[in-house]
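Re: that backbone. C-alpha cells:
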C-alpha cells in the first residue's frame, strides 16, 4: 500500500495463481459451460467489483460490474434476459443484496443469485436458500470457491 497525503492511496492486490486439477502444464483448458454466459456483479466497493470482474473474465465469463445497487436494479429491469447469473454483496447502501435478490427474482424467478457477506447476523445460508437464492458465500472468498460455485450454477442452469 502506498499513501500520499492529498494524493490518495494505492493498493496492490495480489491473487494466487490458479491451477486446474487434471490439466497438465502447457495444456489449454476452457470451461465448456461458460460460452456466452453473462454475469452481473454488484458491490459498493469498486476495488472488489474490479477484482471479481477480472477473475471471472479470465475464466471466460462476460461480466458487467456495478457499484450502485439502484443502477444495477435498473439495468436488470431493462434487460433481465441478458444475465445468466447475479453475484451481489449483502451489505450495500440504498438497496441491500437481499432486497436486490428479492426484486430480481420477482422479475425472473429462474435467475441464479449468489450473495456474499462478511459476518452478518441477519443473513445465513438457510434463510438465503429458503428465499430462492442459490448460495451464500462468506468473505473472504477464494478464487476457487467463487469460480467453482459460478461454474456449478451455470452448468445446471
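Recovered sequence:
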Amino acid at each position: 500500500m502506498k499513501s500520499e497525503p492529498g494524493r490518495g492511496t494505492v493498493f496492490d492486490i495480489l491473487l494466487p495463481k490458479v491451477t486446474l486439477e487434471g490439466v497438465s502444464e502447457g495444456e489449454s483448458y476452457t470451461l465448456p459451460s461458460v460460452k456466452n454466459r453473462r454475469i452481473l456483479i454488484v458491490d459498493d466497493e469498486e476495488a472488489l467489483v474490479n477484482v471479481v470482474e477480472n477473475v471471472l473474465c479470465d475464466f471466460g465469463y462476460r461480466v458487467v460490474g456495478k457499484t450502485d445497487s439502484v443502477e444495477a436494479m435498473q439495468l436488470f429491469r431493462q434487460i433481465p434476459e441478458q444475465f445468466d447469473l447475479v453475484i451481489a454483496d449483502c451489505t450495500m447502501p440504498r438497496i441491500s443484496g437481499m432486497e436486490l435478490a428479492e426484486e430480481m427474482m420477482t422479475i425472473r424467478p429462474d435467475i441464479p443469485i449468489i450473495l456474499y457477506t462478511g459476518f452478518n447476523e441477519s443473513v445465513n445460508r438457510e434463510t438465503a436458500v429458503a428465499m430462492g437464492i442459490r448460495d451464500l458465500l462468506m468473505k473472504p472468498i477464494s478464487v476457487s470457491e467463487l469460480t467453482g460455485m459460478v461454474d456449478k450454477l451455470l452448468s445446471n442452469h
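Residues 19-24, 27-33 have pLDDT under 50 and may be disordered. DSSP finds five helices and seven strands in the chain.
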